[in-house]
Amino acid sequence: MLKLVLLSNALLFLYYLTSNLIYLFLLITAIVKSTSHQQRLSSMHLENLHLSKFTPPVTVVAPAHNEGGNIVESVAGLLDLDYPMLEVIIVNDGSSDNTLERLTVAYDLRPVHLLYVPEIQTTRVRKLYRSVRDPRLVVVDKESAGTKADAVNAGLNVAGSPYVCIVDADSLLERDSLLRVMSGIFSDPEFSVAAGGIVRVLNGCSVSHGALTHIRMPRNPIEAIQVVEYLRAFLIGREAWGHFNMLPIISGAFGVFRRDLVLRIGGYRAAAIGEDFDLIVRLHRFLRERRMDYHINFIPDPACWTEVPSDLKSLAGQRARWQQGLLNTLWLNRDMLFRRRYGRIGMLILPYMWFFELLAPVIELIGYATIITAALLGILSSTLFFEFLLFGYAFATMISIGGVLLEEITYRRYNDWRDVSRMVIYCFAEHFPYRQMNLYWRLKGLWRYWRGDTAWGELRRKDLSQPPDSSKSSTPETAQAAAR
Amino acid sequence: MDFASNWPLPAHLVMKGIAASNLTISALITFIVLRRWYRRRYFERLERHTSAIRRNWEGIVSGTIPPESWRLKSLDSEIVESILLDNLESLPAEELPKLLECARRTGLLDVRIYQARHNKGWSRRAALVALGRIRAPETVPALAEALDDPDPETRVAAIRGLGRTALPEAAIPIIEGLLSGGLAGLPDFPIKNALANCCRAKPQLLLTYLKSSSGTARELLARVLGELATADMGDELMVLATDPLPEVRAAAARALANGSPAVAFPMLAVLANDPEWFVRLRAVVAVGSLQDSRKIRVLLRAICDLNRHVRQRAACILATMEPYLTEILDKIIANDDRYALQAFISELDRSGAFESVVKAIHTKSRGSAVNGLLEALKQGQAALRPRSADSQKYENVVR
User: N or C, which terminus of chain A has less Cβ within 10 Å?
Assistant: First the structure.
């Protein structure tokens, strides 16, 4: 027993050391990459892309399921995007609320008989609508299959541009974000097959007519911690992985793809739990199997602002769901692991996702169990234990503050001193008890997947047209209970 | 045997790790605080100096305020250059000579040319972009030299700079770089943009080089020419329309849209039957823009094309030909091509003419099959799913 505990201890220590060294490496890479990207931006004039006759058209596809509360503002934001040749397709995915009615009234929709070729099979499309007020807007009304993937696929069938930008209907894109993300594609159009931008936390910000008017940190600690998490995940993780062309995921809330390639791999997999992660892994697989040179880019400056869960129940559901999506995709693509054919994807990023993302909560749980067992057996040196705990705490805090630093030296969306101070405070505060709760939710997600329970949790949403403070008084009756 | 003695690393290393992490945290926070403080001070100074310079702007441009009073102060010099460049890009052409004269007289232009020639990395790239914005002919040699830089980022910055000058002579080093293979591996997008900017006033320049080029460089030049070609280039475009490279034929088709209908139409009619779908597509678009009644015949053939994009574009043009809509529909029905009919009706819908055409058909009492199809189209998209035979045909088209 003693030997087992000691062996377990040694292995856990090595695991922990490796993961911390990887994070440190990612942080340093991200700082270097972000700085050079900033320099590149200074020599690139976006208005040239806007005026160029060679800028390809883009179709924005936004699936909407029971988004009646915010849909009009969201569509206004999408139509207001600064891009020369834009088409916006809203897929009303069997909404049972007034999503379609609100769109019909606000944009004067009328049914049209546009050519619909179901290149990817989806549930039945009931009708297509085009706006009289703005002909760039097309609405696809379809029966719900219960998945976002199916709705996006219907949008892909209707899209008429070589590039499609997939966004969530409840997210807000900054006005120049599409142009910025496309600049990543233009920099190497022959090889760039997809690009994603950063997703930021909308909670706490002010929104008017589908546009962000004032950026603030949310006051709710649950939301504020997620700001730190998102900065760390995007500005460190994705920036660094993208640099090595190993980006494992482009957020479903904001990503641009070559339409022909997405169609060739059969679109989004309707049965996928984490359809965005699944799509990127399948793209890697498809392109690697054909020995094609390609880039999947992360562009850090185009921002998409999305509402994050503001209560523990919604957050727990979301995190469990993410963990299930991770397991689902990794398991389905397990044959890519350690196969030279899949290059750095099979040899590096997928093993990383398995060992340091998927299995992390399990290993952390084993770590807690080992410590408790060691304490019960009387072999735990309390001094060493606290030193190790302190080291872990300090190191993780350092990485999080590295995310804040990256935000500061590059994009600086949070201008208020108080916001930055709060961000730094939450870098210290997120470890207890938030980290342990997150661990529990992720384990629960794995357990539920094991049992075959993959139902969506409910996420309470706020009305984007309301000022941020009104969110405090939102009740289950007023908040939109969206199924995804 | 205890936990500590079996620890994989000595305990003092853990203590060092804690100390290093804490030190880094303190350093990061201090950096963030100091940077914020410094930036606040910087922007306050910037604002003060910018308003002072704007107050004296006329004097700075005319030279009544001696350049020595601001040139040696880096912040002031930066502000003057920034305002000057913005004005060069936004003010009307008659204002430009005095601004250019200011850039020359004060030495700003010379400094940038020096930096573009001698600096490295980002500093050189910033100088190249600034030189492009100045749009003075003497910047071209310095920009052209940077095309030989081993760093692709610098070469792209030089191309952008040359493009921003919008001077025909700035196109020459880019084209020569293309033809010699010196720009190999660089993205097409900035090259095409730069050439389009530089050759806008003199597209014949592209034609000269196109004749002696081959391969991808030829395709790229043709693509730019397709956007810039004018009616007076008719004869040369005819030659390009028979080029073995489909990209060149497509560009010629695009350019022929600007030619005289009498000359362009016969060639476009031929290109509308090209083996490459994108050449046919360009030809159909070009035919659609010509004022020539013969185009209906070409478009009616194109609406039955095997390629969806060609069909749809032909339908889009046909659906706007208001007085002939029912006759066009008659002919499409006579072709017995369900895809052509679908494409046409969807475009009629898009153009808002659907209801009037349906009414016209009913009054003419068409056959039951047509009425059935129109009814199905009214009912919804389910009826638009391809029949099995059509599905096969469709599969052949998309592959």
Answer: N
What are the C-alpha distances in Å from B10 to residues A12, A21, A62, B17, B385?
Answer: 16, 18, 55, 11, 71
User: Which residues between 320 and 339 in chain A have a beta carbon less than 8 angstroms from any beta carbon of chain B?
Assistant: none
DSSP string, B324-384: GHHHHHHHHHHHT-HHHHHHHHHHHHHHT-HHHHHHHHHHTT--HHHHHHHHHHHH-GGGG
The region of weakest confidence among B58-72, B279-293, B347-361 is: B347-361
To the nearest whole angstrom, how far is the Cα of A476 from the nearest Cα of chain B? 36
B173 and B219 fall within a common domain: yes
Query: Does residue B41 belong to any structural domain of this protein?
Result: no
Instruction: Tell which of B179, B200, B228 closes a domain.
Output: B228
Angle between helices B11-55 and A382-409 (to 10 degrees): 20
- What is the domain-level CATH number for residue B150? 1.25.40
HEC per residue, B356-370: HHHHHHHHCCCCHHH
Domain shared by B256 and B186, yes or no? no
**Do B116 and B203 belong together in one domain?**
yes
Show residues of chain A in contact with B398, CB under 8 Å. Answer: 119
Q: What is the pLDDT of residue B391?
A: 41
Q: What is the CATH number of the domain that holds B256?
A: 1.25.10
Is the same domain home to B181 and B270? no
The distance from CA B361 to its chain's CA centroid, rounded to whole angstroms, is: 43
B201 and B109 in a common domain = yes
Decide if B362 is inside a domain. Answer: yes
- B318 and B268 in a single domain? The answer is no
Q: What is the radius of gyration, based on Cα positions, of chain A?
A: 23
Domain with B318, as residue range(s), is: 307-399
Contacts of A28 in chain B (CB under 8 A): none
Residues of B in contact with A408 (CB under 8 A): 32, 35-36
Q: What is the pLDDT of residues A273-296, one digit of tens each?
A: 999 999 999 999 999 999 999 999
Nearest residue, CB atoms, A405 vs list B1, B31, B308 = B31
My answer on whether B142 and B209 are in the same domain is: yes
What residues are paired with A206 via a beta bridge?
A: A214
Q: Nearest chain B Cα to A191, which residue?
A: B187
Q: Please indicate, yes or no, if residue B72 is contained in any of the structural domains.
A: no
Q: What CA–CA distance (Å, rounded) separates A453 from A439? A: 19
- Give the mean pLDDT of B368-392: 49
Count the domains in chain B. 3
Cα four-point dihedral sign A446, A452, A458, A459: positive
- Count CB pairs under 8 A between chains A and B: 152
B361 touches chain A (CB under 8 A): no
CA distance from start to end of chain B = 70
Q: Would B48 be classed as within a structural domain?
A: no
Model confidence, pTM: 0.86
Distance CA B152, CA B150 (A): 6
Residues of chain A with pLDDT under 70: 115, 455-484
Regarding whether B288 and B213 lie in a shared domain, the answer is no
Out of A125, A402, A409, closest to residue B381 by CB? A125
